[in-house]
Amino acid sequence: xxxxxxxxxxxxxxxxxxxxxxxxxxxxxxxxxxxxxxxxxxxxxxxxxxxxxxxxxxxxxxxxxxxxxxxxxxxxxxxxxxxxxxxxxxxxxxxxxxxxxxxxxxxxxxxxxxxxxxxxxxxxxxxxxxxxxxxxxxxxxxxxxxxxxxxxxxxxxxxxxxxxxxxxxxxxxxxxxxxxxxxxxxxxxxxxxxxxxxxxxxxxxxxxxxxxxxxxxxxxxxxxx
Length: 225
Known about the structure:
- By secondary structure, the protein is of the alpha+beta class.
- About 45% of the residues lie in helices and about 30% in strands.
- The protein is built from six helices and eight strands, in the order H-H-E-E-H-H-E-E-E-H-H-E-E-E.
- A five-stranded mixed sheet has the order 1-2-8-7-6.
- The termini are far apart.
């Protein structure tokens, strides 16, 4: 075997060892993280039920209120919902923050209303939720402490909400551009298989986007000549 071939094989062997080492490190880290939580039981079922219900409620609200649970000013009111008037692009992280706050702020309310017979709210230390809005799904992980023991529950919900937010930002760019016309919005909607409805209310334009079961509403100031 030539010296050059030996060098190549030695290099490949070193690369393989490094890759194996990294994989083992990641798997060990995941195992150690998972092992800090108790195994699923009746309490995790209760919390998962509430987390799922609250996530559905939160998605319904933020979808109708431009990404917010409590809409900041300025906003317009329509059918009881406060629709924000945007001047800048819509930030996905704001929607994620609103959803996780809604779940955690309302967890005890949900538990009490659900009347879980064996759940003692006095030894429940609250929850901390993480939410990630992906291309085709919304995922969440809720960590909680019950009777001084740590648990976690995870959820995944199919939704086109992120795509609708992207469409909303494109729609705003189109509306604010020179030479805007309704045809451009129609082309945008068709390219995303999304229904885009818009109408004037006082001095704002309200947009309502819909794709499948997902929806998103927002408004912008009426363009001035």
